[in-house]
Amino acid sequence: MSFTVAAFYRFASLPDCAELRPELAAFCAAQEIRGTILLAPEGINGTVAGSADAIASLMAHFRDGEAFSGRLAGIDVKLSSAAEMPFRRMKVKLKREIVTLGVAGLDPAARTGTYVEPSDWNALITSDDVLVIDTRNRFEVAMGSFAGAVDPETRKFSQFPDYVRRSLDPARHKRVAMFCTGGIRCEKASAFLLAEGFDEVYHLKGGILRYLEEMPAEESLFRGGCFVFDERVALGHGLSELGEAAHSEESASLR
Fold first, then answer.
1. Which of 17, 28, 180, 226 does the annotation list as catalytic?
2. Containing H/E element for 27?
3. What is the pLDDT of residue 244?
4. Where are the transmembrane segments (predicted)?
5. 28 belongs to the catalytic site
6. pLDDT of residue 245
7. Burial 192-212 (b: 16+ CB within 10 A, else e)
8. 134 CB-near residues (< 8 Å, 6+ apart)
9. CA-to-CA distance for 203 and 112, rounded, in angstroms?
């Protein structure tokens, strides 16, 4: 049996996230789904695995279920597969942010950078006047990244604002393009850059995962593997598994 893995997020108003948690945990348990889902007032973020039917039911629950009242109708989902169950258990957690940047007042649901489709990404990042930044941590960057991208050398995403304020200048860096694993970090990173006065801010729609899924290997500018937050460890083109190894619970908190 193979398993369907779903990585998803959605910035949406969920002030009732504490009430949603037990219902969502029970739904996943009934469907024998495992993984981690984060709930916060600003939205939802998670990676889970289960049978194809179970994952389809969960996505339908997000989009059409009474509990979410249509607030997750536009949820972003990337699907891949795993030969073995990549998670040990199911966790639904409450958080202040679904991806922790630590900057108050940002609302990616209202204002974020310009999305770039994977098919248009190569042309953008090979332009001479574009600064390309990998918003992930240095462990992930070391495993694989786009050729020529800047590594901010952060250990965690909350260090990204310090990097921007220390190293970037809106007057010099007129056009900035960013990317991350699945797109969620760039939603906040681009919202932050806009708030800091940068005018042209772009980010890869669907992140590296969608790029690897859609871009032919012979046209790809991505080098190495894309670290993922489960026991598959890294994915390559076509979202194929590059290796199997267990990693600690701590590594999952870097997402």
1. 180
2. helix 17-30
3. 44
4. none
5. no
6. 38
7. bbbeeebebbbbbbbbbbbbb
8. 140, 141, 145, 146, 149, 150, 151, 152, 178, 179, 180
9. 9
Q: Which two tokens stand for residue 31?
A: 């469907």
Amino acid present at 106 = L
Length of the chain as a residue count: 255
Ranges of the chain whose pLDDT falls below 50: 244-255
For residue 133 the two structure tokens come to 């930044």
Residue type for 18, please? A
- What pTM does this model have? 0.86
Report the pLDDT value the prediction gives residue 243, as an integer from 0 to 100. Answer: 58
The predicted structure's pLDDT at residue 230: 82
Q: What is the pLDDT of residue 249?
A: 33
Rounded CA separation 78/206 (Å): 8
| Measured distance CA(157)–CA(219) in Å, rounded | 29
Query: Measuring CA to CA, which residue among 76, 54, 72 is closest to residue 64?
Result: 72
Answer positive or negative: Cα dihedral of 8, 11, 12, 16.
Answer: positive
